[in-house]
UniProtKB/TrEMBL annotation:
GO terms for biological process: regulation of transcription by RNA polymerase II. This is Mediator of RNA polymerase II transcription subunit 4. Residues 147-191 are annotated as: Disordered. It is found in: Nucleus. It comes from Cervus hanglu yarkandensis. PANTHER family: MEDIATOR OF RNA POLYMERASE II TRANSCRIPTION SUBUNIT 4 (PTHR13208). The gene is MED4.
Length: 191
């Protein structure tokens, strides 16, 4: 009986030790998992640091002094001045510069897109030869003045054709203004 009690005690101690081993095993596995994550984070950090060092070295090899950049900027700004339209004044609700959409549909935007350079397959020179202003030279936005469009014409063409649509005069303009301020007429009214 004594032997059975001793074996029972030993068995109980073994179970306690097995539980302790399992607990330590799970702790070790958690630590191993955390170490793997830390290793991955460190490997990523080392890789990114190496890439930064490479880019820094590349930048040092092709370094340009700030003075040289400033000189270049002055040279560009001296030959390519950018300013607001002459008719723009502070407090004017219009932008002093064209929007992206206005730039794309302006003269330079038309030049970049060869499929829209001409109207119906005709080049702007054909319109000048016919005695009318090409669509790409017509003022399209409020910040563009008619004088600006006239200055864009080639020097060998005369300025004798009108920049305003046929039938345009001050009386018609007043009629349109009166009609547009009348609240009883609306383009959205339908009968």
């Amino acid at each position: 009986m004594k032997l059975a009690l001793n074996q029972g005690k030993i068995h109980h101690e073994m179970q306690v030790l097995e539980k302790e081993v399992e607990k330590r095993d799970s702790d070790i596995q958690q630590l191993q998992k955390q170490l793997k994550e830390a290793e991955q984070i460190l490997a990523t950090a080392v890789y990114q640091a190496k890439e930064k060092l490479k880019s820094i070295e590349k930048a040092r090899k092709g370094a340009i002094s700030s003075e040289e950049i400033i000189k270049y900027a002055h040279r560009i700004s001296a030959s390519n001045a950018v300013c607001a339209p002459l008719t723009w004044v502070p407090g004017d609700p219009r932008r002093p510069y064209p929007t992206d959409l206005e730039m794309r549909s302006g003269l330079l935007g038309q030049m970049n897109n060869p499929s829209t350079n001409g109207v119906n397959g005709h080049l702007p020179g054909d319109a000048l030869a016919a005695g009318r202003l090409p669509d790409v030279l017509a003022p399209q936005y409020p910040w563009q003045s008619n004088d600006m469009a006239r200055n864009m014409l080639p020097p060998n063409h005369s300025h004798d054709f009108l920049l305003e649509p046929p039938g345009h005069n001050k009386e018609n303009e007043d009629d349109v203004e009166v009609m547009s301020t009348d609240s009883s007429s609306s383009s959205s009214d339908s009968d």
